[in-house]
């Protein structure tokens, strides 16, 4: 009986339930004695908010994580983020490989070959390789960060800071416990560079990284997938564009006090972090209105499907752009990297964006109604930051009332598991295979 | 030779050129002596802005129209708006009937039958009937308004005010010359009601009105088109929703001083005017942040294709919504009113919205960069108002520098002729028929 009931849960329902359980368990754990420092004043909503922010790897906080939580509490938050991040990576990868929902058939075979070449053998083997790969990437990050943090904080504390921020960065979790935050490292190429790199890798997702690595190892046998090329080009273009705009708008503004190298590094870091790292090496409230708008736009676009990043996803954005350009040029076929993008993918891209926009704007409207005095721009910023699981803040999250925090919780949760997944999880129609409910296009990961 | 060159202009190029010429001629006309009152201080950019606002039937102003322009100047502005409005109505209708670009074949035949039943005979006959119908609608509006304005202002001035605002309202032009603006008529069911009705009719477009009228006259012979039903339902739903939200948010806010009837009327009027009338019977700057957001959203959605309204259009919005709902429900076919919406229409809806969003956000970014001190919310409001040719204002247009005004001019122009039309006009590839450049879907007017 219990077996039969478990079989009835389709993948969307499983994801929705797992993350909901994670939030409940996380909040309960953070409520235990010894988690918060004496004097910390967090109510139930604050704890639920913190647990949601951790497991949905967002990084929005109601109070400074380092000052409010004990070492035990901080580790709990980090573990929640690691579980949340690994969950999304494995779910995303398994979905793509096993159901073929998002990768087209011939490419899926290619991909399966590349995975097989690793001799992983089956689902559990694949899970193992994902976990090992993730831990390895975070390990390298920890080593590099310790070159700075160990001399600064001593061996024990330095290693702790290195582990915490390597894990937080690769998971795009955005939690920071270093005293004074990341701002003092704005001109430090080691810390800024390593964290930016980990954010980008985490935001690319496992499949793209695997595809690139196997391609580099043996270019003839392992072709670079259209999906990899599309997302790599889009990611690169957004990084260059974001850096250029921030340099232009903030050269004599928020970047004023820095040297030329520091300006470049800080602008680059701030173009990386909206998608969807959540760390900041410049005070967001010091940015010009134009820069704030660019940050909001980058957050909304987000990172890759099946990665630790959020947003509508780079491929969705790219398909919409190519489609717009095609309409403008009067073409009827969408071509990207020598392959046709079928209309169903454009439909999916447009629909995903519509649903995501409705989610963000409904949330924003509720934020405006529940916290009318906090201002249009900061509320829009926090809303998009929550829905895209970014964690950047214009410094009003800690001033929100409980209604506002609840709205952000819902946005982080829906933004993380995906509004479409959530809707499919609620869908009570009987079907033997949950996945056949998705539209049949299989060419490119969208949303 | 001149004949041959004229033949080479495809319809998008014709539209783009006609509206550009209209702006140039309008600005030159407004520059003539006797157009502005003594003491009015308008430079070249202000005059170009006013001419653009008039011919693109937007209604944004750099200075109060009644106080700044002489009677002659006001009539010139009204004529520009009438030409701009008639231009869009006739172009939209002719496109739909003659090229079949936006209405599918069987429906086009039905429609042609309905038009034929009017015994108009040919294109010029159709143009004549559109002009006559427009003048008739404005005439009825003038008569009704004169019931209020003649007693108030005397015969001559009263008739002038009635004609001006009937024409301005039906064209969704948004220009107001009554002293003190429309606010004193917030609780006047006659003035508010007639103007709201004219805005709605203008925003439905000629084809839908014709279809509804012929259907009412002979329901069996003339079926209500899917396009008519879709846009009527969407328009109605947006009106009800907008009214309800404004009532809820402003009952003790901007509507506080009014009686219950006045509250209802004012909320209804303010839910009509963003799509895309531009008149206001309440001070926009007195609205709560949530109401401002709702106004922006309604402006962005706009009115019907081929009407005097702007925005992404109601049918585009409706298709995106139906498509989102379908994805959530796991359906693969889009059904509206018993007919399937083909994927190409969803692609077009998504693409149109993408292009429009890019236009608005590029404009907004330029506004933020050129006028960083004027505030995020007011600049977003004016940007959307211009791009959707609405004309509502948070009272910062007159404080914009020339760069900001130029951006708004470009947005009004592109928003009026449509960014896709403009791009197709720029497309220099040789084709014998400009219209074949459009994607081949023909079911529903989108964008
Ligand atoms: K994050
Ligand atoms: K208007």
From TrEMBL, chains A, B:
One Pfam short name: TrkH
Entry GO CC: plasma membrane
Keywords: Cell membrane, Ion transport, Membrane, Potassium, Potassium transport, Transmembrane, Transmembrane helix, Transport
Subcellular localization: Cell membrane
Stretches that traverse the bilayer: 75-98, 118-147, 190-214, 226-248, 284-303, 349-369, 403-428
InterPro entries with a match to the protein in the record: Cat_transpt, TrkH
GO-annotated molecular function: potassium:chloride symporter activity
Keyword ATP-binding: no
Topology relative to the membrane: Multi-pass membrane protein
Protein's UniProt keywords contain RNA-binding: no
Superkingdom of origin organism: Bacteria
Protein name per its UniProtKB record: Potassium transporter KtrB
Organism: Deinococcus soli (ex Cha et al. 2016)
């Amino acid at each position: 009986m219990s077996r039969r009931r478990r079989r009835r849960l389709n993948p969307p329902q499983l994801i929705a339930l797992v993350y909901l359980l994670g939030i409940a368990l996380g909040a309960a754990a953070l409520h235990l004695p010894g988690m918060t420092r004496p004097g910390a004043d967090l109510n139930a909503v604050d704890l639920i908010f913190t647990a949601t922010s951790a497991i949905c790897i967002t990084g929005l906080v109601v109070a400074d994580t380092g000052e409010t939580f004990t070492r035990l509490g901080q580790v709990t938050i980090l573990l929640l983020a690691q579980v949340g991040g690994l969950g999304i990576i494995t779910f995303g990868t398994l979905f793509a490989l096993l159901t073929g929902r998002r990768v087209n058939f011939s490419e899926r075979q290619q991909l399966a070959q590349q995975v097989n070449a690793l001799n992983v053998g089956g689902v559990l083997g694949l899970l193992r390789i994902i976990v090992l790969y993730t831990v390895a990437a975070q390990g390298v990050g920890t080593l590099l960060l310790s070159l700075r943090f160990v001399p600064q904080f001593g061996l024990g504390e330095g290693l702790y800071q290195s582990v915490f921020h390597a894990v937080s960065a690769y998971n795009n979790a955005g939690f920071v416990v270093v005293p004074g935050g990341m701002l003092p490292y704005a001109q430090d190429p080691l810390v800024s560079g390593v964290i930016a790199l980990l954010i980008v890798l985490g935001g690319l997702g496992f499949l793209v990284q695997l595809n690139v690595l196997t391609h580099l190892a043996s270019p003839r046998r392992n072709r670079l997938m259209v999906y990899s090329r599309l997302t790599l080009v889009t990611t690169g273009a957004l990084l260059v564009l974001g850096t250029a705009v921030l340099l232009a708008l903030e050269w004599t503004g928020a970047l004023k006090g820095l040297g030329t190298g520091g300006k470049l590094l800080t602008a680059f870091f701030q173009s990386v972090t909206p998608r969807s790292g959540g760390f900041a090496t410049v005070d967001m409230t010091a940015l010009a209105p134009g820069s704030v708008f660019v940050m909001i736009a980058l957050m909304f676009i987000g990172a890759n499907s099946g990665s630790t990043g959020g947003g509508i996803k780079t491929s969705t954005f790219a398909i919409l752009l190519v489609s717009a350009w095609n309409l403008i040029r009067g073409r009827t076929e969408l071509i990207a990297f020598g392959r046709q993008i079928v209309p169903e993918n454009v439909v999916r891209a447009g629909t995903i964006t519509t649903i995501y926009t409705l989610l963000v704007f409904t949330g924003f409207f509720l934020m405006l109604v529940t916290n009318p005095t906090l201002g249009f721009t900061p509320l829009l910023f926090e809303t998009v930051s929550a829905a895209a699981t970014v964690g950047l803040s214009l410094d009003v999250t800690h001033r929100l009332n409980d209604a506002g925090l609840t709205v952000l919780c819902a946005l982080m949760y829906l933004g993380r598991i995906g509004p479409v997944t959530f809707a499919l999880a609620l869908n009570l129609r009987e079907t033997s295979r949950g996945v056949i409910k998705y539209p049949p296009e299989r060419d490119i990961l969208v949303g």
